[in-house]
Amino acid sequence: MRSFYTLIVITRFLLLAVGAGAEPTAPPGYTFETFNTPGAAFAGLSRDAGDLLVSDLANGRLYRRGADGKLVAFGPVFPHGLDVIGDPTGPYRVVRADDGFVVAQGWTPVDSKEGPFDHALVALDAAGKVRVISSDFWNPFDFVAASGNYYVIDSARNSVERVQPDGRTSTLLTFRRMGQAATALRSLSPTEFAEGNGYETDAVPTGIVLHGGRLHIALFGGFPFLAGAGKIVSIPEAGDQSMPQIDVEALNAPVSIAFDNDGEMLVLEHGTYDQKEGFRKGSGRLLKFDKMTREPKVILEGLTRPVSVLVWDERRIVVAALDGNLYVLTRESPR
Q1: Which residues is 296 bridged to in the sheet?
Q2: How many CB atoms lie within 10 A of CB 124?
Q3: Buried b / exposed e across 37-59, counting CB within 10 Å, b at 16+?
C-alpha cells in the first residue's frame, strides 16, 4: 500500500461513510448476531480472559467488551485519521501481554505531524503508561506474540519482522512482488494491459497467526486488488524461512487468519475491488478450509470491509469490520 494510491482516496472514504449494503448471511448450521456502533471503524480483535478487546480506528481508542456487551474504553487516545490511501489508521490491534498490553499503531495520518507512537509497537502498562517497544516499521498492521518475541507484519515494507522485548528488530522475510497474468488485468484496462503482457503487484502482507509451529501470513495483494490474487503462505517459526509455502490461493484480498479448535483454517476476505466504487459493499466473506482437502466453505458472507477474525471458543467466532459492525457467528450444536 503505497502513497501513489492517493487517486482512490475519495472513493474509499465515501465507501466507509456509506456503510453496508447487502445483509450478511450464514449457511445452515450457523447463526450470527450483529452489534453495530455508529461511526466506529473496528479493527483488531483479541481475547483477555472472558473479555473481548477491540480497537476503533475512527477515534483511536481501545475497548473492552464484557459479558454485558458494553464497550468500555481504556488506555490513551492513540493517533488516528486517514492514511495516504484514504483508509483509517490508528491502533490496529491490542493484545494482552503479562500485566499490560501491546498495541500495533499504524502509520502517521496524512493531516498530522509524525508523533512518537506512529508506525510503532507500543507497550501499555497496568497504570496506563505508554512505552514504545520499536518504531522501526512503516505500517505494522498485525502481530503475534510467541517464544518471547513479537512477529510483526509490516504491510508497507511487505515484510515480516521479529521484534525482541528490548526493541531489537530483524527482518525474517520480505515478500517479492506477485506476477499477474495479462488476462486478469484486461477487464481493468484493455488498452494498457494488452494480450501477452504481464503485470506485478505488491504482495502486501496483512494478517498473521502462529499454528503448528508455522507462521501463516495473508497476502492481500496490491492495487488494483485483483479478484483471486490473494494467498495464504507459511514459514516455520524456526529454521529456513526464505521460501514461503503456499497454503491457499485464489483469494479475494485476505486480511486475517485464524485456526479453530479442530485445526481448520479460517480466512477473512476483505472483498472484491472496483475502480469506481472501491471495495464492493457486501463482498467480504469468512471462509473455513477443510484441513484434509483444503476445500473452502463460506460460513459468513455479505460483509463490508471486514478486517479481523477471532475464534472465541469451539462454537463461536467474532468478526470486526470497518463499517462499525461486530459479528458473533455461532455454530449450532448437533442434536
Answers
A1: 289
A2: 21
A3: beebbbbbbbeeeeebbbbbbbb
Show Cβ contacts of residue 293 under 8 Å, excluding neighbours closer than 6 positions: none
Q: What are phi and psi of 300, to 5 degrees?
A: -160, 125
Tell me, what amino acid is at 96? R
Name the pTM for this structure. Answer: 0.89
Which residues in the chain land under pLDDT 70?
1-22, 181-198, 334-335
| Backbone phi, psi, residue 250, to 5° | 60, 45
Closest CA to 100 of 72, 133, 77: 133
What pLDDT was estimated at residue 85? 83
Secondary structure (3-state) at 332: coil
CB 229, CB 190: distance < 8 Å: no
| Structure confidence by residue, pLDDT tens digits, 186-237 | 555 555 555 556 678 899 999 999 999 999 999 999 988 999 999 999 999 9
Cα separation, 76 vs 59, whole angstroms: 11
H helices within 111-175, ranges in order?
Answer: none
